[in-house]
Design brief:
Oligomer: homodimer
Number of helices of chain A: 4
Largest interface: A-B, 94 and 93 residues
Helix content of chain A: 10-25%
Distance between the termini of chain A: 51 Å
Largest sheet of chain A: 9 strands, antiparallel
Number of strands of chain A: 17
Strand order of the largest sheet of chain A: 14-4-5-12-11-13-3-2-15
Order of helices and strands of chain A: HEEEHEEEEEEEEEEHEEEHE
Shape of chain A: globular
Chain lengths: 289, 289
């Protein structure tokens, strides 16, 4: 119990990095990357820094189109995160979702899509507790049901989705970002239209609301401001950042998934079940100029 | 698509609060509370504020005893979070876990315990993807296996556990706090000895390390400082806060679990599977003087 550990230390650092660390080998140099098109990138400026969002027009074409139009109108600039539940979601916009509606058009539900073999679906877990099967499509965690032939994006940390009222087609402007353990029970009930690919540490700095008020932050109380949202395609090409994410359809990523399922390293004294939580598999991002 | 939503708005606010919000009724006044004994409370002062930790000496007696002794020695005061992986863990201490060992005693593995009917286990999910059964014991998420008759604490967001090297009995001083999607594959492989019951927003402000370095923050780079850790029992009684958490063995909490499983409200157009992720069930905390 009391022996010195010097003998361990050299090898242990590496062992811990690779095991307890759960940092996969592709964090090194063998990652295959996919470049994200500027048309799918939005920069959100918050007081703590910048979050970069990849929009998903394949799953949510109407929502992305309206979001982009609102961004161009400057709709969000200067608005707040007015409802923030620690461990759950940070919701921002003009608050119309919670009170007087604004005049923006309501959006059709884009909760799921018909399955098509055109989706580059890399399977992760079958079955998963919340879906017959999970996987990745273009870096987004997804679920699919091959019986009903439906596919949908899942509520993992960092996704951005449209808030709505009871009706399925009642979202319009106000969005939420998942900042806690994946609320997967919301899958197929709300329109996920993007994910934060960089800057979740910035999003996590958002001021929380009181839990007894369901996270609602009263006017006059400190709220985190959405200083500005800008679309990459509206910036001069020279000012855009290059955003690359792990190519989740690559063979290399497939190997990562297998290795994470097996948990082979000697660090594991209790062998975990050979399952993966799709929301716990990291998808790396590389930002350049 | 373009009709105004005024007609919806009065009823919708409440509907959203109760459904999308996923904020259970017990966030109101019918919660049954359990007072946490001062002997199980530690205050961690970080630059962004205070995190309050409930220690769990029932599951990790040796680890809690050593942690408390180290706190009293001032071991952690002024040390840093030196390895922080966004979406995974924030690891703090003197870095001995990563390099030269210090002279503190190593701890025995306290990964799981024999099942006993003395545990006030409130079942949540059976089976869960990572355990034959999950539930709560005194506000802590837990797993159990009635075949092997073992019970353990699970790696949910906010838990604090001892880092270790490859050997099971190699933890000693450096700890990590889970700051992302529950890394449940670590269950039964590390000693969880507490959980953050208040101030996860403060913990989330910890400076992240670069992902290409597995979150390691080089010396000289900005790191978040652990300013001070203090045990409640070492403070004058008049200065202690009263800390109460949801009594997870109460009938009221059992009702919450059932209602979360059923997802009855009209908000749900797609009925979610009747399952619960134990790490996604909120356990409320009430802090007083």
């Amino acid at each position: 119990m009391n022996q010195p550990r010097n003998a361990f230390c050299l090898s242990l650092t590496l062992a811990l990095l690779l095991t307890a660390a759960a940092v996969p080998a592709w964090a090194q140099d063998d990652t295959e990357w996919r470049s994200v098109d500027a048309a799918s990138i939005a920069y959100m400026q918050l007081p703590g820094g910048e979050a970069i969002i990849e929009l998903n027009a394949e799953f949510a074409p109407a929502t992305v189109a309206q979001f982009k139009r609102l961004v161009r109108d400057g709709f969000y600039d200067g608005l707040d995160f007015y409802r923030v539940v620690d461990g759950f979601v940070a919701q921002g916009g003009d608050g119309s979702d919670m009170g007087d509606a604004n005049s923006e058009p309501m959006l059709p539900a884009e909760f799921e899509r018909p399955w098509s073999a055109d989706f580059a679906f890399t399977s992760v877990q079958k079955p998963d507790m919340f879906a017959p099967e999970t996987g990745f499509i273009d870096g987004f965690a997804a679920g699919r049901d091959m019986q009903s032939r439906k596919v949908w994006l899942t509520h993992c940390p960092g996704v951005i989705a449209m808030a709505r009222n009871d009706g399925p087609d009642t979202g319009s402007t106000d969005f939420y970002i998942v900042i806690g353990q994946a609320p997967r029970y919301l899958d197929r009930n709300l329109t996920i239209f993007g994910r934060v690919v960089s800057g979740m540490d910035v999003v996590h700095r958002v001021i929380r609301g009181p839990s007894e008020a369901n996270g609602m932050i009263a006017e006059g109380e400190p709220r985190t401001n959405i200083e500005k949202i800008v679309l990459a395609e509206d910036m001069p090409a020279a000012e855009r950042k290059s955003v690359q994410v792990t190519d989740t359809s690559s063979a290399e990523f497939g190997k990562v998934l297998q290795s994470r399922k097996k948990r082979g390293p000697p660090f594991f004294h209790h062998k975990p079940p050979e399952v993966l939580d799709v929301c716990q598999v990291p998808v790396a991002t590389r930002i350049g100029r």
